[in-house]
Write a structure and sequence with these properties.
The chain has eleven helices and twelve strands. A six-stranded parallel sheet has the order 9-8-7-10-11-12, with helices on both faces. The protein is of the alpha/beta class and about 350 residues long. Strand 4, helix 4 and strand 5 form a beta-alpha-beta unit. Helix 1 packs across helix 11, helix 2 packs antiparallel against helix 3 and helix 6 packs across helix 8.
Length: about 350
């Protein structure tokens, strides 16, 4: 989604964008505002096969796929006459193309942050290799884009890297609300209940179970939109507590109604998050937010939420008037302009290095 929104916005400000996707993959849909190409080769297919046979995340398999795709992407970028190569989702291996290189880091965790205590020496050694690979990757780049201050502090800062980095937060493509909060609540059949809303995958690393203490307030209803591995456990809780509602997947129109109607959007995730789009969508809806890290958001928006590891801060957030946030949430065109400035800096840095 980030790549799609950014590529579309860059096209609107006059940058021609070609998105390269590692194969094998379906042909890109027609009607995209940018060019999209599937890059496939025997090496890429062999690397994917290797990854399917080895435990998830093993360095050998991931490095093989990255190397195969990076080499093919560099050849294609040269062939189409690209001025900049902008690589996303590189965490294990760097490469040095013959043209200006920009990386974007999306997550706020190092590979070792979630190492299980019982992990053996081989797993730990593998994760350490991934960190060394990540350090090489960011230092190979002419510019590194971090999607939040949290990502820059957690990755660039903790790596001890001297890589030049810029913080460019995500944008929000959601339009301002077309209905009042009262109208949204009426459409959803809500009355006086206080609504704490979660939207996202019901995965353990999202720490959704940490929200259950909110139900200790008898006026609070907890509404979860999303699916995932925690669904059975959460449905067992919901069977005993009617104020816990699991809606599963909902369409975009219903999601926006809930974002407008809620008293607070809650996101108790750990430090792996970068700049969660759902927080921006809530603020664009005029709804205050609770999250673990204030640095997930641009500084001007932090006054519209409460942040910390105690989920009960969500109740304090409910008292915040977030109507002013609607006009302050950045759109993707602003992100494109900031990214274009990063590209210019990367071109200049590349020229200096060649000289």
């Amino acid at each position: 989604r980030h790549v799609h929104e950014l590529a579309s916005a860059l096209m609107r400000v006059g940058v021609h964008v070609t998105v390269l996707v590692p194969g094998p993959a379906p042909a890109p849909p027609s009607g995209l505002p940018y060019s999209a190409l599937v890059i496939d080769s025997a090496r890429i297919r062999a690397a994917r096969e290797l990854r399917s046979r080895l435990p998830a995340g093993r360095t050998l398999a991931v490095r093989a796929l990255d190397k195969a795709f990076n080499a093919a992407a560099e050849r294609r970028a040269r062939r189409i006459g690209a001025d900049v190569l902008h690589r996303h989702f590189v965490y294990e291996v760097g490469f040095r193309p013959g043209l200006p290189l920009v990386y974007t880091l999306h997550n706020g965790n190092l590979p070792t942050d979630d190492t299980p205590p019982q992990a053996g020496p081989l797993v730990k050694a593998d994760l350490e290799r991934r960190i060394r690979g990540l350090r090489r990757a960011v230092e190979d780049a002419d510019e590194v884009v971090c999607v939040s201050g949290h990502v820059r502090d957690s990755i660039i800062g903790r790596l001890g890297s001297q890589a030049k980095s810029a913080v460019v937060y995500n944008g929000c493509s959601q339009p301002p609300p077309s209905v009042t909060k009262a109208q949204a609540r009426a459409r959803l059949g809500l009355r006086d209940e206080r609504i704490a809303l979660f939207i996202g995958h019901l995965w353990r690393h999202k720490r959704v179970l940490r929200l259950l203490p909110l139900l200790e307030d008898p006026a609070c209803h907890l509404v979860l939109i999303g699916t995932g591995e925690l669904e059975p456990e959460l449905r067992a809780h919901a069977a005993k507590e009617p104020r816990l509602r699991l809606l599963g997947f909902v369409d975009e129109e219903e999601k926006r109604l809930w974002l407008r109607a809620a008293d607070v959007l809650v996101l108790p995730s750990g430090t792996f998050e970068g700049n969660p789009l759902v927080l921006l969508e809530a603020l664009r809806s005029g709804t205050p937010v609770y999250g673990t890290m204030a640095t997930w958001l641009p500084e001007p928006l932090r006054k519209y939420g409460c942040f910390g590891d105690d989920v009960r801060l969500a109740f304090a957030a409910m008292a915040i008037d977030a109507a002013g946030a609607i006009a302050q949430v950045p759109g993707w065109d602003a992100v494109a302009q900031q990214t274009l400035a990063v590209y210019r800096d990367a071109v200049a840095a590349f020229g200096r290095a060649k000289a």
